[in-house]
Amino acid sequence: MAASHSDAIERAARVRLMIFDVDGVLTDGGLMFTGAGDTMKVFNSLDGHGAKLLREAGIDTAIITGRRSEIVAARAKELKITHLFQGVEDKRVAFEQLLADTGVEREACGYMGDDWPDLGVMLQCGFATAPANAHPDVLERVHWVSERRGGNGAVRELCDLVLRAQGRYDALLAQACAPGHR
């Protein structure tokens, strides 16, 4: 399904809600376990800032993940991602709930995922995306593939693309460069 560059830009321009998977997208997919059985995850700060920039531009964000983790809840809170669905067996169910909660149409939703559990949502939304290291079956079915790997800037690359497609990137960059900006 990989779309042409111009089609991907047109789809990105329509995004009003960007949804992310966690493992393999917001993280590199690795799972670290402590001796006590706790899971640890590593998030990329560039990816996090990209999600914040989407919010600043008026684009809502969400996470739908199959695992349940206090680490993910803390990261979502830090990034002010208000729509968080964890421990989801069928991501399509969470997607339907998200559409009902936000009133956003499917065509105005973007989704970044990396493996089969994400396909049910990816095939229903207007802008399906994946990190470079996603499963081959996913890569064959998305509209756009990042050059970066999950957990290593793929989300930021996507956020920048959406912001550019919507004509908001330059203003946000100028604001960041302005004297006195923190």
Automatic annotation (TrEMBL):
What are the binding positions for substrate in this chain? D23
Single biological process term from Gene Ontology: lipopolysaccharide biosynthetic process
Query: What's its catalytic activity?
Result: 3-deoxy-alpha-D-manno-2-octulosonate-8-phosphate + H2O = 3-deoxy-alpha-D-manno-oct-2-ulosonate + phosphate
Regions that span the bilayer: none
Q: What class of enzyme is it?
A: hydrolase
Q: Which CDD domains match?
A: HAD_KDO-like (cd01630)
Q: Give the EC number(s) under which this enzyme is classified.
A: 3.1.3.45
**GO molecular function terms noted in the UniProt entry:** 3-deoxy-manno-octulosonate-8-phosphatase activity; metal ion binding; N-acylneuraminate cytidylyltransferase activity
Any idea which positions bind Mg(2+)? D21, D114
Q: Which InterPro entries match?
A: CMP-NeuNAc_synthase (IPR050793), HAD-like_sf (IPR036412), HAD_sf (IPR023214), KdsC_fam (IPR010023)
Cofactor(s) listed: Mg(2+)
Which parts form a coiled-coil structure per UniProt? none
Key words, A-Z: Hydrolase, Lipopolysaccharide biosynthesis, Magnesium, Metal-binding
Report the superkingdom from the record.
Bacteria
Q: Does the record carry Kinase as a key word?
A: no
Family to which the UniProt record says this protein belongs: Belongs to the KdsC family.
Which PANTHER family does the record associate with it?
A: HAD SUPERFAMILY MEMBERS CMAS AND KDSC, N-ACYLNEURAMINATE CYTIDYLYLTRANSFERASE-RELATED
Listed under subunit, the entry gives: Homotetramer.
Instruction: Supply the name of the protein.
Output: 3-deoxy-D-manno-octulosonate 8-phosphate phosphatase KdsC
Native species: Paraburkholderia caballeronis
